[in-house]
Design a protein that fits this description.
By secondary structure, the chain is mainly alpha-helical. It is built from three helices and two strands; from the N terminus they run ααβαβ. It starts with a helix and ends in a 5-residue tail after the last strand.
Length: about 130
């Protein structure tokens, strides 16, 4: 652990303090070849981290596409279903992940969805309450 601590607290700050970073915009034009060569490694690290972050965000957006509903009745403007409580005999599980092949009823598709995306969605369970 000492090696990591020393690297973070001493080595990296000393390295960064020794870099030829100018105080003004015009100072960049007065840097020599040696100064520019010294700036290549930290620029490559920052560029690599930036590129990796961009690719990760881009992949996450491509997988999600921004739509909650990937395939249910896409031919209409708004998907609305009415279920009368009186029609429920004991209980019914309603889909919240929009992946069910039996939509609006849950068929367990949220399990694969959760595993793929790291989400934690599950069904809405509606129970018929008997009068006592």
């Amino acid at each position: 652990m000492y090696i990591v601590s020393n690297l973070v607290k001493v080595t990296i700050p000393n390295y960064l303090a020794g870099l030829p970073i100018p105080d003004s915009f015009g100072g960049w034009f007065r840097l020599g070849v040696r100064d520019w060569l010294a700036l290549i490694p930290p620029a490559a690290v920052v560029g690599g981290i930036s590129y990796y972050s961009y690719q990760t965000i881009k992949k996450a957006q491509a997988n999600g596409s921004g739509h909650v509903n990937p395939a249910i009745r896409k031919d209409i403007n708004k998907v609305v279903d009415f279920i009368d409580i009186e029609d429920i005999t004991e209980k019914v599980s309603l889909c919240r992940c929009w992946r069910s092949k039996n939509w609006p009823y849950c068929d367990g598709a949220h399990g694969a969805h959760n595993k793929e995306t790291g989400d934690n969605t599950g069904p809405v369970v509606v129970k018929h309450k008997e009068n006592k």
